[in-house]
Amino acid sequence: MDQSAVAEIVGAIAGLLLVAAATMAASRRLGVPFTVALVLVGIGLAEAAQLGVAALEPLARLRMPPEVAFFVFMPTLVFESAYNLDTRALRENLSPVLALAIPGLLVSTLVIGAFVALFTDLGWVAALLLGSILSATDPVAVIAIFRQLGAPKRLAALVEGESLFNDATAIVLSTILVGMLGAEAAVSTGLIARGVAQFALVFFGGLLVGWAAALAVGWVLGKVENDSFIEISLTTVLAYFSFLLAEVTLELSGVMAVVAAGVMLGGWGKTKVSPEVASYMRPFWEYLSTVANALIFLMVGLTIDLPALAANLFPLLVVVVSMTLSRALVIYGLVPALRHLPGVDPIDRRYQTVMFWGGLRGGVALAIALSFREQLPAAIADEFVALVAGAVLFSLLAQGLTIERIVRHFGLDQPPLPDRLARLEGLISAKRRTLEQVPELRDGGLFAPRVAEGVVRRCREGLARLHQALDELRGRELDVDQERRLLYLRCFAAERNLYFRMFSRGHLSERAFRNLSHSIELQTEAIRHEGHLPSFTLHPPTGERFETVFYRFIDSLPWIGRRVESLRAARTARDYEVAWARSRGSHRVLGVLDELAGVDAARPEVVEQARASYQYWHEGARGRLDQNAEQFPEFVSATQERLADRLVLHAEREAIEERAHAGIIPEGVAEAMLAEMAEELRALRATEVRRLRIEPGELLKKVPFFRDMPEADFEAVAARLRPRTAPAGDTIVRQGDRGDAMFLVARGVVRVKRTDDGITRDVATLIAGDFFGEMALLHGTRRTATCRAVTPCALYELRRQDLEAVLATHPGIRQVLEETAARRRAELDELAALERGSLEGATTAPAPTEA
User: Fold this and answer.
1) Does domain 63-409 have CATH number 1.20.1530.20?
2) Alpha helix locations (H) across 780-810?
3) Cβ atoms within 10 Å of 672's Cβ, excluding its own
4) What is the sign of the dihedral through the CA atoms of 137, 142, 144 and 147?
5) Each residue of 59-90: b (16+ CB within 10 Å) or e?
6) What's this model's pTM, rounded to 2 decimal places?
7) Which of 75, 321, 563, 781 has the greatest CB tally within 10 Å of its CB?
8) CATH number of 696-843
């Protein structure tokens, strides 16, 4: 390619970006959707070039190669959507999302394909290909409306998740159908079966590739501290590398790889991005996505052949009707059925209608059509692309320009009361700040007295009007229930802000921060849309039971026992971090509650209800902290020392930044000092608990069973013991299970329960220095009782194979074990005899601790 051709292409692209920027400014002023305006401008530029405007000829001649649409624009569009998706909300709505994205897309593909094949000249495979491309929806308009309306976030997550996954599914399905076009005459059951198998392979294989790539990049991001170039570059590399690795190297779905990579990095990996860089990451990807969309829509407008559209008016009408019917079938057929899935709430019919009419076809559909253009048979390629472009144009013009009317028709155009109150309160706060600053500016000579008086007068008049509007709104709509909701929402906002500051300063680990943020999100959504607080957000019983079962299962796998213990210890550390942060958060809210309530003079009973809730949460968090401090003092002490070191470093850093800004410290010297402090802060950042684990030697010496052993014997035993952490409520051994291990209680409280004839009784409470499980260990019998951790516990486990090795060199231990086993067996026999006599006698019987 010669220099002049390159210069022409670069100039044309720069010109398109300039046109896009001007179009965005005009669309905002005129209230026209940006994408609609881009297509119309593109058509206008092409027509003007044909009429002889020489300056526009380079733009009109510019064509987008299919490879550019697929390998440049597609990863950008998909990764931006996946990365900015609320992954927690996606996970909680995964079943309805997948139901709409996969079965919904297949239904839509079949409906469009059937109509097109029956009423046009396109064959079945080509018609299905057209259906799969036009089943990919663009949710931008609906999401913007839902955010404006304050709709439940689960709806936004449902629409965004559906669009993301049906885009990816559409691309995978379209790729398979393009490959089948050449075999259209020989379509058979075998060919369809191979197509289904290929779909599954490339779909799930792509997901696996993206997941693995995101894990690798997330690990590297965790090692980088506040470097915007490295961190943003790594996300860019992830988007394109995962796409190319899956699509080109492994011949899987590159789009599914990008979806998995984006969702993974946007959830698990987002808190691995430095807080200072996170504020740049979202705008960066939004800019790339906007550029890609702008160029795609402009190119479509420039290349749309209006005479070809007119020649294919009837086929286009068939496509538009079938596209609309298919969307109606998916929304009004599948969405109501989703309420039968577990954990899915019904969706209001008004919101269903907004989802139906707002299911625009946009940049992804156009990018798919353009990328496959050269693979289509020459006889249908132009007609095919013209039909896709015409359908997208109809969607943008007919649906994009009327969606707001649909919203107003259903009375959904009013933001919720908390948002309207927040707007008025924000304006009042701004006016008050202006009044506070006017005297300072006037005294500094910036304002003449006459000007200052005019500003003050206008501000006071504006304040009076705002206060009147606020009073009218409160009197008209703010009843006791709404006032309670509003106060809780303010409290949650203050709490969320504190957690983010704690995380950005390194006082919270990323896992604890995610859990706390999700808890606040659940509470906010429940109060906003349901009017009550959820029963559980941080410690749901089902989740804790699942974790207990999971740990018990993998604990039975000997080759990962050490890793299991590391996970248990991490869970205990996470519980402590969450309790500490929750204590700080509730204390902070209690301190500013009167101020939050005083913004609009909340009723005393409402304030006291919120105060009671936060006092309850504060006391619960303090109770958990006290339990951890009592049972794990070394861990708590190390955590507090680390926090103190970080606070000192932050104070020193702020002092150096102030002096550097004032010019007292030279800029180069300050940068070197701040870099050293950044390294120290990174080293002190909230870490995994394995770095703070209690040393076993000190704890083991507190256990009477080993206290007086010679040092050499003690070390031999300690080497065979396996550390284990049991969080509060964890079942360590269960009655009736066959045991092969004894447990030593190094720290914590363990309750021993026994069930006989359907009646469960507490038979013992074990503390540091006690042990249990020796009879099952020695004789291979089943557990005769259940042992559960009452508080977080540090235990040491001695398994049968390890015991045999210890007893071979330390016979004295065998004698102690056998004497204890005989005594416990006698106690159990006595208890059984008492239980046969009377239930009352059983409650006062000696309490054996064997399990």
Assistant:
1) yes
2) 800-809
3) 11
4) negative
5) bbebebebebbbbebbbbbbbbbbbbbbbbbb
6) 0.65
7) 75
8) 2.60.120.10
Q: Are 271 and 352 in contact (CB under 8 A)?
A: no
- Asked if the domains at 63-409 and 696-843 fall in one CATH topology, the answer is no
Amino acid, single-letter form, for residue 381: A
Residues 249 and 236: their CA atoms lie apart, in Å, by: 19
CA angle 273, 275, 280 (to 5 degrees): 80
Q: Round to whole Å and give the CA distance between 642 and 636.
A: 10
Question: How is residue 85 written in tokens?
Answer: 């998706």
Residues 6+ apart with CB under 8 A from 672: none
Distance of CA 809 to the CA centre of its chain: 53
> Domains of the chain: which residue ranges?
63-409, 417-478, 482-631, 638-692, 696-843
Q: Which helix (H) or strand (E) holds 799?
A: strand 793-799
- The residue written with tokens 């109809």 in the block is 394
Polymer length in residues for the chain: 851
Closest CA to 602 of 472, 493, 484: 484
What percentage of the chain carries pLDDT values higher than 70?
Answer: 77
Q: Residue written as tokens 């359908």?
A: 391
On average, the pLDDT of the chain sits at 77
Dihedral sign of CA atoms 505, 508, 511, 514 in order? negative
Q: What's the one-letter identity of residue 434?
A: T
Residue ranges with strand state E in 375-503: none
3-state SS assignment for residue 436: helix
pLDDT per residue as tens digits for the range 180-239: 775 544 555 666 677 677 778 888 898 899 999 999 998 888 888 778 889 999 999 999
Burial of 769 (0-12, 13-18, 19+ CB in 10 A): middle
- Give the long-range contacts of residues 415-419, CB within 8 A, separation 24 or more: 415/148, 415/149, 415/150, 416/149, 416/150, 416/528, 417/473, 417/477, 417/478, 417/482, 417/486, 418/150, 418/485, 418/486, 418/489, 418/528, 419/150
| Residue matched to tokens 């051709």 | 5
pLDDT means per 10 residues, the chain with 851 residues, are: 69 85 88 80 83 72 72 86 79 78 87 90 87 80 60 72 79 81 57 72 88 91 82 92 90 87 84 78 88 83 75 87 91 82 74 81 76 77 82 82 79 71 79 77 67 79 82 74 82 88 76 82 79 68 59 62 62 79 88 73 80 88 76 66 76 82 81 78 57 54 59 73 83 87 81 86 77 74 86 82 76 66 65 53 39 58
What pLDDT is attached to residue 783? 86
The SS3 call for residue 138 is strand
| Structure token pair of residue 777 | 């260990």
In this predicted model, what pLDDT tens digit does every residue of 740-771 receive, in sequence order?
A: 888 888 777 788 898 888 888 888 878 766 77
For the segment 531-544, what is each residue's pLDDT rounded down to a tens digit? 777 766 665 555 55
